[in-house]
Amino acid sequence: MGKPLLADFGISISELKKNPSAAIRAAEGAPVAILNRNTPEAYLVPADAWEEILETLDDLRLAEIVRQRQGQKRIRVDIDDL
């Protein structure tokens, strides 16, 4: 059973080697599956999409910290006391 293709565009490793810039342009900002014998071996992700992925992962980590801290005892502080 092969791996699922998680991109709308795919290109063989051989074609990618011939002209990587053309592969990136053809995908118009979408991820490109790099195929070896019609099986995805890697994904080429545009810089903007990668930055968005990292931002989302960071948000998820921060949300988990918030959930963990929700049950902690709260301490009242008056701004004038600082």
From TrEMBL:
Signal peptide: none
Domain of life of the native organism: Bacteria
Name of a matching Pfam family: PhdYeFM_antitox
Family classification: Belongs to the phD/YefM antitoxin family.
Purpose: Antitoxin component of a type II toxin-antitoxin (TA) system.
Record-linked NCBIfam families: phd_fam
Name the UniProt record assigns to this protein: Antitoxin
